[in-house]
Design brief:
Keywords: FAD, Flavoprotein
Bound molecules: (2R)-2-hydroxypentanedioic acid, zinc ion
Protein name: 2-hydroxyacid dehydrogenase
Strand content: 15-25%
Family: Belongs to the FAD-binding oxidoreductase/transferase type 4 family.
Number of helices: 15
Oligomer: single chain
GO molecular function, one term: FAD binding
Number of domains: 4
Mean pLDDT: 97
Helix content: 25-40%
Number of strands: 19
Radius of gyration: 22 Å
Structural class: alpha+beta
Shape: globular
CATH topology of the largest domain: Uridine Diphospho-n-acetylenolpyruvylglucosamine Reductase, domain 3
CATH class of the largest domain: Alpha Beta
Cofactor: FAD
């Protein structure tokens, strides 16, 4: 079965569209963290929506499962195949055109394989901003950003990717194409079906192109790094910043001393405000003047109230980039430090200090010898509560401890990274059975054969 399918895929896509050699398929077979090695039957690289549709139809006819893949930067193993050598990996990378930028209507239309950074650059060249940004933006692809409803550093101001998608083109599990590439701000005509494909990680269909919402590009930016005594002080600082410059805050990040120590050890980058306690990185942006003075005011008041122990305000774009580098290197340096168990959690913002405190105590008691690398997007309630472990620690037990605390604070076990295969069991454990049953009904309706990214988000039926 598999060989005849591969032959048909090759006949449809030509040599540029099909990879079957082990070495060529290797980068598509394993995730960035190298936690989920798989073996694809083949890798297809369609160059158009029509080709994607034909691939899906051929696979459906042959009963072969499909695993859509973007930039393969995900942290939950959602874009890699299992080890059966029967699943077809569908890379969207060749569908990389930016079809249109409309600076007046504030939209950008891109194909799924466009690198996020290139889409951001195209918006910038038109004097506008595509406000989704995260450390992997140089490799992540627009289709994957949408399929995972990516978050990142600007959610505090602009919301998740979901809120930036105006129109979508998708290929359904039977190979039909649905073109909803409307560039409208208001569109209440019937079901908003595109939401089914945003954040569902390719389990219901494949995103092939999208119309994204742009925003005006703020003229001025102010970036500050502050050392704070503890997370409770960081929360007070957040409240102060909300009151003083709330409408211009576009990032409010919390970084633990452990995170900065990792960055210092493994990337040689040193924080100008030290690594002793906790650190907050605030970025504000506005087209109105006076932003810098307003940010100075926030810093001054925070220092006066002793909610900040030290602080720097970037003098230039270069210096701002240096401050951001401290934050953006955490993931890479954590990986270099050894094994870790990641938790991408969110809790109500006001609960962050208590959550951090309680999770720390629970781990100390239940998993002695672990080290917590906590950092994240405090302004939207999302903490990456990653636990560095040794060979004696079991990751499921640590998940149980941390997610137990998340439940007690009414939080979510996946704030922005999705479920992939990494959190399938945890999702089923933490979501109400009624919600899981509803998800299964949606899955059965859209993918009756169960061939769209099986085993991701939901356990195989
Ligand atoms: C970030 O915020 C990313 O830098 C990665 O979401 C988080 O490494 C992580 O756990
Ligand atoms: Zn993050």
């Amino acid at each position: 079965m598999t060989q005849s399918l591969i032959d048909r895929l090759g006949a449809r896509l030509g040599p540029a569209g099909l990879l079957t050699e082990e070495a060529d398929m290797a980068p598509f077979a394993i995730d960035w963290r190298r936690l989920f090695p798989g073996r694809p039957a083949c890798v297809v690289r369609p160059a158009s929506t029509a080709e994607v549709a034909d691939v899906v139809r051929l696979c459906a006819e042959a009963g072969a499962a499909l695993v859509p893949q973007g930039g393969n930067t995900g942290l939950a193993g959602g874009a890699v195949p299992d080890g059966s050598a029967t699943q077809v990996v569908l890379s969207l990378a060749r569908m990389n055109a930016i079809r249109r930028v409309d600076p007046v209507g504030l939209t950008l239309t891109a194909e799924a394989g466009c690198v996020l950074k290139l889409a951001q650059d195209a918006a910038e060249a038109a004097g506008r901003l595509l406000p989704v940004s995260f450390a992997a933006e140089g490799s992540a692809l627009v289709g994957g950003v949408i399929a995972t409803n990516a978050g990142g550093i600007n959610v505090v101001r602009y919301g998740m990717t979901r809120g930036l998608v105006l129109g979508l083109e998708v290929v359904l599990a039977d190979g039909s194409i649905v073109d909803g590439l409307r560039a409208l701000r208001k569109d209440n005509a019937g079901y908003d079906w595109k939401q089914l494909f945003i954040g569902t990680e390719g389990t219901l269909g494949i995103v092939t192109a999208a119309v994204l919402r742009l925003v005006p590009k703020p003229r001025h930016t102010a970036t500050a790094l502050l050392a704070v005594p503890d997370p409770a002080a960081a929360l007070r600082l957040f409240t102060l910043a909300q009151e003083e410059i709330g409408d211009s805050i576009q990032a409010f990040e919390l970084i633990s001393g452990t995170s900065l120590a990792l960055v210092e050890t493994h990337a040689g980058l040193r924080s100008p405000v030290g690594t002793a306690g906790w650190t907050v990185l605030i970025e504000a942006a506005s087209s109105l003047s006076g932003l810098r003075e307003a940010m100075e005011g926030v810093l001054g008041t925070a220092l006066e109230r002793e909610d900040a122990l030290d602080g720097v305000l970037a003098e230039s774009g270069r210096q701002a980039a240096d401050l951001w580098a401290l934050r953006e290197h955490v993931t890479e340096c954590e990986a270099r430090a050894g094994k870790s168990v990641k938790h991408d959690v969110s809790v109500p913002i006001t609960a962050i200090p208590a959550f951090l405190d309680e999770a720390g105590r629970v781990l100390e008691a239940g998993a002695p010898g672990t080290r917590v690398n906590a950092f994240g997007h405090m302004g939207d309630g999302n903490i990456h509560y990653n636990v560095l472990i040794g060979p004696e620690h079991a990751s499921e037990a640590i998940n149980g401890l941390v997610h137990g605390v998340v439940d007690r604070y009414g939080g979510s076990i996946s704030a922005e990274h999705g479920i992939g295969q990494y959190r399938v069991a945890e999702l089923a454990r933490h979501r109400h059975p009624d919600e899981m049953a509803l998800a299964r009904r949606i899955k059965a309706a859209l993918d009756p054969q169960g061939l769209m990214n099986p085993g991701k988000v939901l356990a195989r039926a």
